[in-house]
Amino acid sequence: MRVRSLSTVLPAVAAVCIGCSAGVPTGTDTLPPTVLPALKPCSGIDCLVEKLPYRTVAFNAPRQMQLEETRRVALQIAPSEPVESLRAQVRAMVGDTGAVVDTARVRFARTMRATLEGQGFEITPKPEESIPVAVSATTPTDWVWEVTPHKTGNLILWLSLDAILSVDRRETPRVFRVFIREIPVTATWSQRTEMVVKSWWAQIIYVLGALALLGRALLALLRRWRRNAPA
């Protein structure tokens, strides 16, 4: 039997010991399993919303308005139209080639309802008259409103899209806010003068009405005093 010299055996033993001390896995070692966090399953309307694809919408909102001025606000949703094409179509719908048109990405459903609301505005069609419509997956779908402010100041206008989803066999709307815009509304000099005159006339009519009531009361007291006065 042939015995190796210590000069050849000791280096190999040292290498094995160094590997063991450094934590190098051997043929019999196994790595601990990786534990991943459990995913919470979605349920109800959340699952339906997550499955909805995104689409691009284009819309215009006035940056400022005059009192009693009527403007058009339009919204268009399209499956694959270029952004510039959407903007051009919205400008054509509102009849203003210089209108500022914004875009956004929103969830898309086969049935949707668009609602434009505001404080101090007359909006046609009215929010309660908004009805769900079938949205095409291949061609654009659009909505148009006419907006008229009836008072001055910073008025709020907001636009929302409702995706109509079927949850437990019931139609349930899921609201997606498109924009909330604060619109300064100003009045011309003639409009301000007219408002002041109307305010004055209202006050004058109120005062005259109060004086008339006071006069009638005094006249009634005078007649009563004359009837009861000694002859």
Give a written overview of the molecule.
This protein has 231 residues and is an alpha+beta fold. The protein has two domains: 45-187, Immunoglobulins (Immunoglobulin-like), CATH 2.60.40; 188-225. 32% of the residues lie in helices and 34% in strands. The longest helix is centred in the C-terminal third of the chain and has 40 residues, at 189-228. The termini are far apart.
In short:
32% of the residues lie in helices and 34% in strands.
Instruction: Please report the distance between the alpha carbons of the first and last residues.
Output: 165 Å
The CATH architecture category of the largest domain equals Sandwich
Q: What fraction, in percent, of the residue positions are helical?
A: 25-40%
Overall 3D geometry?
elongated
CATH class of the largest domain: Mainly Beta
Main sheet: which strands, in order across?
A: 4-1-3-8-6
Backbone structural class? alpha+beta
Subunit arrangement of the protein: single chain
What's the CATH topology name of the largest domain?
Answer: Immunoglobulin-like
Roughly how many Å is the radius of gyration?
A: 38 Å
Number of strands: 10
**Are there runs of 5+ residues with pLDDT below 50, and where?**
1-7, 9-24
Query: Strand portion, in percent?
Result: 25-35%
Order of helices and strands: HHEEEHEEEEEEEH
**Major sheet summary line:** 5 strands, antiparallel
Going by CATH, what is the homologous superfamily of the largest domain? Immunoglobulins
* Annotation field: number of helices: 4
Number of discrete domains? 2
Question: What does the average pLDDT come to?
Answer: 81
